[in-house]
């Protein structure tokens, strides 16, 4: 049976070949209104820099725009890559969003730079170790909490008193340790790094602290990422998935660029030596096929890892196919839209 848990959407504002960058934002606005109507719980925007594939570098700005085009769905970062930002600035940005639009925002925080080393260096923050990263997360929680000043009289204005919910993101046991120690809900990036999901969730659940002052939830709370493409037939879904496969290869081999059209045979567009990076439609956190097939496999994924929520991402060359896939998933899952 389908464990009735919420589904959410992860959005990176992808650009397809031949598409103007401004048009990519138009399609994201339309998608946001769609998933809001369909009953998805959250729409998170992931921060990426220096990418010609994704336009989500200024995620808080994108979220402010999407707030104008949605009514119910929670919006948030999936996430803010903390090595790129001072904690005070993060608290100010997301405190401003909460002040403008009310309690509709989540603040997902991650440790990765979200870009290549040269661009990361240009962002001028560096890569903190686990302890300093955890200290920065605590500072953000404090700045968003009840009005008080940090040492030196530092305050987040606006921001203080908004209590924007904080999530910890991760793709390994490092983020799981921080999430457990601080009592935060945990979102695991299984959509691109499923290898350590079992180990990371075990660490998180075994070491979770509900009685620390930073705790945001009273029990371990887990969201996991999944890649989904639904079409009328298995063959058509797998063909649409070749756009995502080409994207994966290009990301792994440094060939950044817009999403490419689907193909009938990947070997005609990808060298044999690079096919290993393409991924398969039957991977652990990738669900490609008809609505019922995806429903059944996604339900097994939820049950296997005792998930509280799934955040779904879908890449297709034609934005209409992406919208149709989210629509079909909402219907087969039974979302309350």
UniProtKB/TrEMBL annotation:
Record's GO cellular component terms: cytosol
UniProt xrefs under Pfam families: Bac_luciferase
Chain ranges of the Luciferase-like domain: 20-303
Gene3D superfamilies in alphabetical order: Luciferase-like domain (3.20.20.30)
InterPro entries in alphabetical order: Bact_Lucif_Oxidored, CmoO-like, Luciferase-like_dom, Luciferase-like_sf
UniProt-recorded Gene Ontology molecular function terms: oxidoreductase activity, acting on paired donors, with incorporation or reduction of molecular oxygen
NCBIfam families reported for this sequence: oxido_grp_1
PANTHER family: LUCIFERASE-LIKE MONOOXYGENASE
Family as reported in the entry's similarity comment: To bacterial alkanal monooxygenase alpha and beta chains.
Protein name per the record: Luciferase family oxidoreductase group 1
Organism in which the protein naturally occurs: Yimella lutea
Lineage of origin: Bacteria, Bacillati, Actinomycetota, Actinomycetes, Micrococcales
